[in-house]
């Protein structure tokens, strides 16, 4: 990721490097002590700003009551690391906050819909979002009340900030983005309750949405500083190839590293299991290899989309592309979100956010 790459350059930069060509020589305009000093100052100053933003988000998490929720994972620092690792410039502070808060809700609601809530309560939650109505909260259990009140207040605030930046009301847009997301969560909950294993194509059609990367990007894009017309939004919208490839690659890398653990917890649908259902003659190892091939091809296509989508503002293109990349980093060696305390991702978070360069 760009921020980690920058740190690596700083730590390996040699102001007195000797270069070797046909002879040995030094290049003072490239290897320069002042450049290194400025790079360290810049990195540490931006890192300090990031830590201040992270403190604000922790306060939001605690004041919203989410620390009282026993069914979900608290991964505020790891999630904030995602936008900080690629959209790190100070002027994107609001976008980082929106990205992190939205991502935290995708984790909370994924855990809620995946294993904690009953189908009736989940449908009540989805209906409350659709109607944008606090009056239904009284019918919810306590933990779901906390979720919905926090959700309602947070996205009203995000919509107000989006209105100021976009010059138009964006609450309806945000609500529609979430309706699609909750519909995907609900379908997975219904599959799980019925012990239904869909076909691979049916699974991917829903799972590329339920991975929730599209929801995070579409809402965060409103705070990048770019004025987004309906035409631009359509180029990174639910029907765009660009967004689909981001969701597809994110889902596949997630599934390849989590499907065995989730199967042990009773989950019946994953890309690997669904592909094996379609092709009962192949082994699990062959199915996994095929899923990796699909993902590699999709990543190649995603690269082409990133290069060719010149009609989309650069910041929005970065948002889509780098979100796909951060998923590859989180799940490179395992479930880097759930098991972050035992994974290499812990070192990445520390180097990006907490450990200054010396």
From TrEMBL:
Keyword line: Lyase, Magnesium, Metal-binding
Pathway: Terpene metabolism
Upper lineage: Eukaryota, Viridiplantae, Streptophyta, Embryophyta, Tracheophyta
Taxonomy, superkingdom: Eukaryota
Organism per entry: Pinus kesiya var. langbianensis
Gene3D superfamilies, per the entry: Farnesyl Diphosphate Synthase, Terpene synthase, N-terminal domain
Residue span, Terpene synthase metal-binding domain: 65-298
InterPro entries named in the record: Isoprenoid_synthase_dom_sf, Terpene_cyclase-like_1_C, Terpene_synth_N_sf, Terpene_synthase-like, Terpene_synthase_metal-bd
Gene Ontology molecular function: magnesium ion binding; terpene synthase activity
Cofactor(s) in the UniProt record: Mg(2+)
A single BP term in Gene Ontology: diterpenoid biosynthetic process
Protein name (record): Abietadiene synthase
């Amino acid at each position: 990721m760009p921020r980690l790459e920058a740190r690596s350059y700083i730590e390996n930069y040699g102001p007195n490097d000797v270069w070797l060509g046909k002879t040995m020589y030094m290049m003072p305009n490239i290897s320069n002590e002042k450049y290194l000093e400025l790079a360290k100052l810049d990195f540490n100053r931006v890192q300090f700003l990031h830590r201040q933003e992270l403190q604000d988000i922790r306060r939001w998490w605690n004041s919203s009551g989410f620390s009282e929720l026993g069914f979900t994972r608290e991964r505020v620092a790891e999630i904030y690391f995602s936008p900080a690792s690629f959209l790190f410039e100070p002027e994107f502070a609001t976008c980082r906050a929106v990205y992190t808060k939205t991502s935290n809700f995708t984790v909370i609601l994924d855990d809620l819909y995946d294993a904690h809530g009953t189908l009736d309560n989940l449908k009540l939650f989805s209906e409350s979002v659709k109607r944008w109505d606090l009056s239904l909260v009284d019918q919810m259990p306590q933990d779901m009340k906390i979720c919905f009140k926090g959700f309602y207040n947070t996205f009203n605030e995000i919509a107000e900030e989006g209105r100021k930046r976009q010059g138009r009301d964006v609450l309806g847009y945000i609500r529609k983005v979430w309706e699609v997301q909750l519909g995907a969560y609900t379908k997975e909950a219904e599959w799980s309750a019925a012990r239904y294993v869909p076909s691979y194509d049916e699974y991917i059609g829903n799972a590329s949405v339920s991975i929730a990367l599209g929801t995070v990007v579409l809402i965060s894009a409103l705070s990048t500083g770019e004025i987004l017309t309906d035409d631009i939004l359509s180029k990174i919208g639910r029907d765009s190839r660009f967004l689909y490839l981001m969701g597809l690659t994110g889902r596949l890398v997630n599934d390849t590293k989590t499907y065995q653990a989730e199967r042990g917890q009773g989950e019946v649908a994953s890309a690997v299991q669904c592909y094996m259902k379609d092709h009962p003659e192949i082994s699990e190892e062959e199915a996994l290899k095929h899923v990796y091939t699909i993902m590699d091809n999709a990543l190649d296509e995603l690269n082409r989309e990133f290069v060719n989508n010149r009609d989309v503002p650069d910041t929005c293109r970065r948002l889509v592309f780098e979100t796909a990349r951060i998923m590859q980093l989180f799940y490179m060696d395992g479930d880097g979100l759930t098991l972050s305390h035992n994974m290499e991702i812990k070192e990445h978070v520390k180097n990006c956010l907490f450990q200054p360069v010396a």
